[in-house]
Amino acid sequence: MKLTILQIALPCPLRLSFDYLPNNAEITWQIGMRVKVPFGSRELIGVIVNLKKANEEPNTAKLKTIIEAFDQQAILSSDLLSLTQWLSDYYHHPIGDCYQTVLPKKIRLGETAELETETYWQLITPLLDIKLGKKQQALITLLNEYSEGLSQKFIYQQLGQCRTSLLGLEDKKIISSFQHIRQPLINHNPIEHCQLNEEQLTAVENVWQSRNDFSPYLLQGITGSGKTEVYMQLAEKMVAAGKQILILIPEIGLTTQFVERFKQRLAARIVVLNSAVSDGERKQAWLLAKSGLADIVIGTRSAVFTPLPNLGLIIIDEEHDASYKQQDGLRYHARNVALIRAQRAKIPILMGSATPSLESLYNVEQLRYQLLILNQRATGASIPKIKLIDSRGPSANSGISTVLYEAIKTQLSAGNQVLLFINRRGFAPVLMCHDCGWQATCSHCDARMIMHQRRNILCCHHCGLIQRLVEKCPTCQATDLKTYGAGTEQIEHTLQAYFPDTPVLRIDRDSTQKVNAFADIVNKIRQGGAKILVGTQMLAKGHDFHDVTLVGVLDADQGLFSADFRSTESLAQLIIQVTGRAGRGGKKGEVFIQTSQPQHEFWQDLLKHGYPYTAKKILAERKIMAMPPTGSLCVIRAESQDESLAMKFLSDVSALFHQATQQEVIVMGPVPAIMEKRAGRYRAQLLLLSQQRKPLHQLLDHFMQAIGALKLTRKVRWSIDIDPLDLL
Ligand code: ADP
Ligand code: ZN
Ligand code: ZN
To answer: What's the pLDDT tens digit per position in 615-672?
Structure first.
């Protein structure tokens, strides 16, 4: 018998897979099995990516033998194996590290791939006329609703700890326990779905008709137009047809609301994969999906890698959201990956948004996606009017204009809620000495320290450095230090002083760090009554607060003058999204935007002509500059503690590229990053831009090895970002 060589992808930065010998001749080795191998002085767990016959390799004597295998079969199906290979090829990322992203933590650490079970209880005799205690009676009533049995955990959740009652009933042979796979409960009494309007029906019909083909749809529907209803009805049809559905949602503090709607509406097995899910739960959900025991997977970015043997539809909600792009390691875009998955599985993919990305709008223009439009608010509520306030005009305090202040007052006295956005945490972004001009800056970054008054600290938002708040100028000892600008904490403070009888709730990363803090705040908001909510963009997405009638954006200028090429697109999306937060209930809403540039063309376009017009115009500008989505972009970043090495490394990379005789790809740079120093490292970047995607990828493929072999790779950290979201 010929010896097999196992080619294994290992979690290490090398862009190779490694050859090992099997430890057991009896095993039928398969691509996709997990194995543990010796690697230098360590042991690593990797995935078999290829099987080779020993006679193809001359040097088998040198090969090491694996330590153990974890699986009897492949842990990933062939579609996910090839998707992972695609990730590695497209994003030019080491294959072993791609598996680290694709597999849930417990699986990649070698835990068994078996579903966990738990204790369930079930009625075994028809209800007889015996006298029972109150708790036991309640138990029977509950179990009677679920003939297939209920998990003990769920019973405890419903009735409190009731072990004695359970055992008592077991003794009487009324109920019995058994072990069953731990899985989500199916809602047997889903609420009726509502009658869809014409536009919604068209959307559902279109997607359903093309259920056997790869067909991408962009569902462009204003906030509150009933996109989620469309998702739910499609999911219902798919579940009835025995298909699984993957639903991606942005990373926001609260996914509960979205998930709850699905659970109330559908009699389906729904699993959730977001950041709040523990590693154990994640593994269970992953295995349930893999074995076809979950009908619907709702999750954030990385849920796009969930194994789904009967996948029938992919839905991406808020498809424009930046959280779909991973910003470190394997820098994938979940929308992009989802499209590849849908294409390979020959199924429809529905991307929904009130403010679609330019990428998707461009794809509609190129006839690659079909456009579905929802133009009516499903509940009939009207979209509020946006008013611009010149922030250079009279102001009350902390940068809140008098006009806005008066409007807040009016809404509060009517018992309504007010939602104010400012995209900066903390009290003030600048702390400065009036006498000598000293400013509080971070010693590790080219950035200012942000003043946090409540915690009495200065904090760098880029590297996390924290210092005690200084009372004297460290340079000239003067005591009258001044702050400039305002953050959420200051706005909260100011408004609480103005309206002492109205609760002011702050929602930002500082106030929501504790587990459940976000949910608690949201519950407080829901309780109704006059309230002021001050928050960062965190609050812009997806929440449905019925009593909010006024939305204010305090610092809209940031987006107008940013160096990021996507900043106007993001600003337009943000403004439309926050506008959708006002007047969701029966009451009419109003929106105020403070800007120092009310005459700016951007505002005129957005307010007069709306998002689609503005997006079209920005897209036209991108076309002229050959920037994404029309052109293809890649940024190679490098950083090092030594001031010159990052630039030096990228110059070497650039020199390599210039060896190629090609004209399609423009190589720009290297240049220092806009914030050159961050967390003690100097950063630089090299940009590749081409009209077509292919030449850019070919150029990278051609030089990948050579870049990896450059001497300086050992002294700098470097990364490749394909289709980067920002260039900052
Ligand atoms: P979106 O996801 O586009 O923001 P939703 O699906 O959340 O919109 O719908 C907004 C509100 O309108 C919800 O309260 C929803 O229950 C309601 N709604 C949606 N479709 C209909 C419909 N066809 N008839 C009545 N109410 C609807
Ligand atoms: Zn000073
Ligand atoms: Zn810093």
So the answer is: 999 999 999 988 999 999 999 999 999 999 999 999 999 999 999 888 899 999 899 9
Using CA atoms, how far apart are residues 115 and 454, in angstroms rounded to an integer? Answer: 47
Distance of alpha carbon 557 from alpha carbon 219, whole angstroms: 29
Through-space distance between the first and last CA atoms of the chain, rounded to whole angstroms:
57
Rounded CA gap, 545 and 417, in Å? Answer: 9
What is the number of the ligand closest to the CA of 477? Answer: 2
Angle at 158 between CA 153 and CA 159, to 5 degrees: 100
Closest to 551 (Cα-Cα) out of 580, 582, 527: 582
- Contact status, residue 219 vs residue 227, Cβ threshold 8 Å: yes
CA 221 to ligand 1: nearest atom: 3
Q: Give distance in angstroms: CA of 441 to centre of ligand 3.
A: 8
Residue from 228, 229, 319, 544 whose mutation best tests the ligand 1 pocket (most atoms within 8 A of CB): 229
| Amino acid identity at 693 | R
Reading the block at residue 487, the tokens are 């953050």
Question: pLDDT band at residue 2, thresholds of 50, 70 and 90?
Answer: low
Amino acid at 298: I
Nearest ligand to the CA atom of 446: 3
Distance 274 CA to ligand 1 centre (A): 24
- Residues having C-beta closer than 5 Å to ion ligand 2: 433, 435-436, 438, 473, 475-476, 478
Distance, CA of 409 to CA of 530 (rounded, Å): 10
User: What distance in angstroms lies between residue 677's CA and the mean position of ligand 3's atoms?
Assistant: 9
Q: Which of 468, 540, 542 is nearest to 224 (CA)?
A: 542
Mutate to test the pocket of ligand 1, among 379, 382, 383 (most ligand atoms within 8 A of CB): 379
Cβ atoms within 10 Å of 649's Cβ, excluding its own: 26
List pLDDT tens digits, range 193-214: 889 999 999 999 999 999 999 9
d(CA 717, CA 235): 44
Q: Is the CB of 577 under 6 A from ligand 1?
A: no
Distance CA 307, CA 289 (A): 6
Cβ–ligand 1 distance for 225 under 6 Å, the answer yes
Ligand 1 pocket residue status of 355, Cβ below 6 Å:
no
Dig out the tokens for 189 from the structure. 């009494």
- What is the distance between the alpha carbons of residues 164 and 170, in angstroms, rounded to a whole number? 10
Three-state SS for 334?
A: helix
